[in-house]
Design a protein that fits this description.
This protein is mainly α. Helix content is 83%, strand content 0%. The longest helix is centred in the N-terminal third of the chain and has 35 residues.
């Protein structure tokens, strides 16, 4: 009994930690974007996303080597099932993550994190149309709650600055990309692809996707020389990538130990953590209205994705 309780506490800690670290990583990215030289480059968010995922891929490679999975890495090109993860990576990385950082640049981390937290609700809606998954009444109510809160947030963001609506659009596209990644990658994970291998493939594919975009759009790497000539900037970049990698690892561990829905419900608290960290680290204003909308989006997203039958089980596990 004691072992079961310890395992449950550990699993919950993994899920909650994934949200804490992801919220922190977004704030650290916001700190990078505060550099005046970097902010002068229009496409620097895409470059930062490329560097972030590439460094994260390096961390995962070291992690897998330490875990003795070198042979599994060698077999990646030979497994045709990995193509599913590569497709998911394109939606989650070059599309989702790029828009996430672009949104941070325009409307700040607090609004971006909260709006992007609608990805589970959008994922459930996508599954309904593409995979014919039924959406229950509680899910419909949750979706309405998430959408209404997001619309209020989007309006609030757009009235703050003339480019606020652009930031809202990027945040919404980010949620679309991440929700597509969920639907596609969950299908791939059901094909017996280990979580850590799947994440390594995801980061590697995402890095290649970014590189192609950068070569096609600008044929160079603006701001990279400045980043690596400034010890504070590249130290912050490596630390940010480490924090993001830990977030994903904790998330995958939580998924393997808990039901995916419960792991997700703990992970999407990143919107709340991002608001808190933004207030502490980058002096973004925090208000009761923002916090309430943040909680509303998180609850709405959770209710949309969760199955009513699992709600009772979820409540019982908390006792």
């Amino acid at each position: 009994m004691a072992i079961f309780i310890d395992r449950k506490i550990t699993a919950n800690a993994y899920g909650l930690s994934s949200g804490v670290f992801w919220g922190l990583s977004g704030v650290l990215l916001a700190l990078l974007l505060e550099d005046t030289v970097l902010s002068s480059y229009l496409l620097i968010p895409i470059v930062l996303a490329f560097l972030n995922d590439t460094i994260s891929c390096g961390y995962m490679f070291i992690y897998l080597i330490v875990k003795g999975k070198y042979q599994a890495i060698r077999l990646i090109p030979k497994n045709k099932k990995n193509g599913i993860i590569i497709l998911a990576a394109i939606f989650g990385g070059p599309i989702g993550m790029s828009c996430y950082i672009l949104a941070i640049q325009y409307i700040g981390i607090s609004y971006t994190a909260t709006i992007s937290a609608t990805y589970p609700a959008i994922g459930a809606l996508t599954s309904f149309f593409l995979l014919k998954d039924r959406i229950h009444l509680i899910g419909i109510l949750g979706l309405i709650l998430a959408v209404v809160c997001t619309m209020i947030l989007g309006y609030s963001a757009s009235t703050q600055t003339t480019s606020g609506w652009i930031g809202f659009l990027f945040a919404f596209i980010c949620a679309l990309g991440w929700s597509s990644e969920i639907v596609i990658s969950s299908y791939g994970m059901n094909k017996d692809i280990p979580a850590d291998i799947a994440y390594f493939i995801r980061q590697l594919s995402s890095s290649v996707g970014y590189l192609i975009i950068i070569i096609l759009l600008i044929h160079s790497f603006p701001g990279v020389v400045h980043i690596f000539s400034n010890i504070e900037l590249y130290s912050l970049l490596f630390f940010t990538s480490l924090v993001a990698t830990l977030s994903y690892l904790f998330y995958y561990k939580a998924i393997s130990m808990l039901q995916p829905i419960r792991a997700m419900s703990l992970n999407i608290t990143y919107a709340i953590w991002a608001v808190i960290f933004a207030c502490l680290l980058v002096d973004e204003p925090i208000s009761i209205k923002l916090l309430l909308l943040c909680v509303g989006v998180s609850i709405g997203s959770f209710l949309t994705a969760v199955n009513p039958r699992n709600i009772k089980k979820l409540i019982l596990t908390l006792k």
